[in-house]
Amino acid sequence: MAVCFYNEEYRPISECALPLTDLAIQRGVGAFESIRVYEGRPFALSLHLERLALSADGAGIAAEDILARIPLIAREWLSREENKKFDGIIKPYITGGDINDGGKFPKPRFFVVFDSDIHKISEEERQNGVELEPNRVARPYPSIKSTNYLFGFIPLSKSDRNNFETLYITPEGEITEALSSNFFMCKGGKLITAPESKVLKGVTREIILTLARENGFSVEERCPLENELAEADEAFITGSLKEVRSVVRVGKIKIGNGKPGPVAQAMHHLFIKNMERWME
């Protein structure tokens, strides 16, 4: 059962509700984070909350007081005896509230979800990899982790394949990121991924880039091109819940031999091996 901190109480999520006047409901105004917790220890909590602050500020949400409280709320809940082995995810949300002052939102609401009922990826799933559906638009304001994912979901509903999520590809053919992941292409001995200026600053992305450089991988921060997909040796996505997952197909294009490759496997191994460095 998921628990939610809302209106100064930790309660079952089924007992929590936003007013219909909240701009998160009326206009999709809101920012959030997904913070993985392993056996009661948050992973990269500080980095996630730094990004949440940037998202709220970019969205015009006045959230300074809320942001100061979130780590205290998370740690208080995790410190309880029954939660010391919590294995799941913490998701803080900051909404637009009821007031729109010319694109600024001075009275936001917030809530924090603690959920252990998450899908933990099996070894079999990792060995199968995932398929992505092309989404041929540029993601608006990618540096803001907004609650509004609608335009990323639409291509999934029109596809006849069982795709994992969508992949943003600009009209110029640049691959930026996936619906809720960062994207890496492996080609010519290099890891290629879109620069931070064009995508959400992925926490797992930054960790993977750090580990790759520390371990002798060649990294190129540029947007991979759609016409390079057929030439790629492999590809993978990164994210808080996914960690590292191989991509075996994008639309009709098979990546490499259509199976997870050794680079993704190596990066996931390095991620698991070095997790302690980012545990808080």
What does the model show?
The protein has 280 residues and is of the alpha+beta class. Helix content is 26%, strand content 27%. The chain contains seven helices and 16 strands. The chain has helices spanning 23-26, 45-58, 64-79, 123-128, 150-158, 203-214, 262-274; strands at residues 3-6, 9-12, 30-32, 35-38, 41-42, 88-95, 110-115, 130-135, 165-169, 175-178, 182-187, 190-193, 218-221, 234-239, 243-250, 253-254. Strands 8, 9, 10, 11, 12, 13, 14, 15 and 16 form a nine-stranded mixed sheet that branches. Strands 1, 2, 3, 4, 5, 6 and 7 form a seven-stranded antiparallel sheet that branches. β11 and β12 (190-193) form a beta hairpin. α2 (45-58) packs antiparallel against α3 (64-79) and α6 crosses α7. The two termini are 24 Å apart. The model has no long low-confidence stretch (mean pLDDT 97).
Mean pLDDT over the residues: 97
In angstroms, what separates the terminal alpha carbons? 24 Å
Rg calc: 19 Å
Shape field: globular
Could you give the count of β-strands? 16
Q: Unreliable segments (pLDDT under 50, ≥5 consecutive)?
A: none
Structure annotation, total helices: 7
Q: Helicity, in percent?
A: 25-40%
Largest sheet entry: 9 strands, mixed
| Strand-pairing-aware structural class | alpha+beta
Element string (H = helix, E = strand): EEHEEEHHEEHEHEEEEHEEEEH
| Residue fraction in strands | 25-35%
